[in-house]
């Protein structure tokens, strides 16, 4: 059994669709994901408009992928090569188990 993980990518909502289209170029690695609207807070945020500046938060998207840990460097290299943006923060968490309720584990 390969060690599974969650790759989380935090990206500006302006360019989330572009990143997703690049992820779909590697279907042998990325078979699906979840994209969640989010808000970004902190000193590294770049406000796109006055509303974000007043609110103190930027519009972001959080893209979550469950995949083998060994493929994370491949996904990140693909993003760095194909996706020209420095506005892409990521982190990796171990995934103990995953699956669909009532159908058992996917990564048994």
Question: Which key features would you list for this structure?
Answer:
alpha+beta; two-stranded antiparallel ribbon; 3 helices; N-reg_PII/ATP_PRibTrfase_C; DUF3240; transmembrane
Report the uncertain regions.
none
**Main beta sheet: strand number and arrangement?**
4 strands, antiparallel
- The total count of strands amounts to 6
Helix percentage: 10-25%
Specify the structural class.
alpha+beta
Strand order in the largest sheet: 2-3-1-4
| Alpha-carbon Rg, integer | 15 Å
Strand proportion, as a percent range, falls in 35-45%
- Rounded average pLDDT: 85
Number of H/I helices: 3
N/C terminus separation: 7 Å
SSE order, as H and E? EHEHEHEEE
What coarse outline follows from CA principal-axis ratios?
A: globular
Keywords: Membrane, Transmembrane, Transmembrane helix
Transmembrane segments: 62-79
Protein name: DUF3240 domain-containing protein
Task: Characterize the structure shown.
This is DUF3240 domain-containing protein. The chain crosses the membrane at residues 62-79. With 108 residues, this protein is α+β, with helices and mostly antiparallel strands. The protein has a domain at 23-95. 23% of the residues lie in helices and 35% in strands. It is built from 3 helices and 6 strands. It has helices spanning 16-23, 50-55, 72-82, and strands spanning 4-12, 34-40, 58-68, 88-94, 99-100, 104-105. The model has no long low-confidence stretch (mean pLDDT 85).
